[in-house]
Amino acid sequence: MTYGTLRNGYSGIAKLLHWLVAICVLSTIPIAFWMKNASPGPLQDNLYNLHKSIGVLILALILFRIAYRLIAGAPAAEPTLEPWQRVVSSIVHTLLYLLLLAMPIVGWVANSAYGASTPFFGLFDLPPIVGKNEGLSEQLFKFHRWTGWAVAALAAMHIGAALQHHFIHRDGVLRRMLPTSMGGA
Question: How far is CA 138 from CA 57, 59, 144, 180, 182, in A?
Answer without folding.
Answer: 23, 21, 10, 45, 44
